Every structure is written in C-alpha cells, then in structure tokens.
Amino acid sequence: MKRWLLVLVAVLSLSGCGYNDFQRLDEQTKAAWSEVLNQYQRRADLIPNLVNTVKGEANFEQETLTRVIEARAKATSMQVSPETLNNPEAFSRFQQAQGELSSALSRLLVVSEQYPNLRANEAFRGLQAQLEGTENRITVARNRYIQAVQEYNVLARSFPTNLTAMVFNYDAKPNFTVQNEAQISKPPTVDFGGASAPRK
Predict the structure, then answer these.
(1) Pick from 27, 72, 166, 199: most CB atoms within 10 A?
(2) What is the per-residue DSSP string for the chain?
C-alpha cells in the first residue's frame, strides 16, 4: 500500500495532479447548468400567460391545455440541486420532465394553428415568439453545458489526472441525451403517393 502511495505522489508531482483544473471545470459545469435552469425557469414563467391567453379561445382543446399544465407542474416540482449533476438517475428524471413539457408545448403550438382567432391574437403571437426564443436559448445553454461536461469528463478520464479523480472521487458527470434515440435514428419515411393529382 505504501509503495502505491509513493508511486502516486511521484506521478502527481511530476506531471501535475490537475486538482485546480477539477475545481475550475466543476465550477464551469455548475455555472453552465445554472444557465440551463435559468432558461427552463423562463419558459415555465411564460407558460401561465400562454395558457390564460389560449383559454380565451372558447372551443380550444381542453386536453391539450391540461397536458401543458400538468407537464409544467411536474417539471417545476422537481427539486434540482448541484448534486443533481452528479446523480445520473436524478438528472435523467429531470431531463425527462423537461422533455415532456417541451412535447406538450409543441403540441399546443401545433393545435393553435387550427384556431384563426387565436393566431390573430396579438398577446398569443407575442407569447409564442417569446417561447420560441426561449427554446433557442435553452438549446444554446444546453450546448454550453454539454461542452463544459465534456471538458470536465476528459480531465476525469485522462492520465494522470484520472488518479486525482479517483483519490478525490471526481466522477464523470452525466450529460444531456435524447429520450427517443432509437426513434430519431431511423430515417423518415416520405410518401407522396396520396398527394399527387391524377393525370389526365
């Protein structure tokens, strides 16, 4: 055991242990994650206004509104802390809840196209534009988080800093993934068979 400790000390002293790099990158991933949460919160804050505007359309599909309300409630009820970044299961649950909210919002915006009065409503158009902008901000924030985690994980797995990671329990951090990877990996089926007009 003593021999291994001496070898470890020698290796770390010769090539740098990377301890300070771990601190810097850990803070970088936390800051990037905070920005992701900030954008998710912005989206959650916009949803009640959107729902209230849509409720003004008398015949709007109640089921679609209910799904958005329930998905928002689920996404905002999750307790997210810095420890979430080090817990792949909690991270996955959070990611799934946000994905369900994204899906419900997408459905709401698609269905709204069938309601001319709603499309003409200035408040609805403004909220829709804000939500679309927020979705773009979420994408940018998630990309920055992905890059920060990649840099951290490379440090945690590279020699000799992986020895520091083992000593101080700097485990690799989970990253964003898609929930339906198998589904989106399949090429789309394009069929124009029913759309073509009969030739004369």
Answers:
(1) 72
(2) -HHHHHHHHHHHHHH---HHHHHHHHHHHHHHHHHHHHHHHHHHHHHHHHHHHHHTSTT--HHHHHHHHHHHHHHHHS---GGGGG-HHHHHHHHHHHHHHHHHHHHHHHHHTT-HHHHH-HHHHHHHHHHHHHHHHHHHHHHHHHHHHHHHHHHHHSTTHHHHHHHHT-PPPP----TTHHHHHSPPP---TTTSPPP-
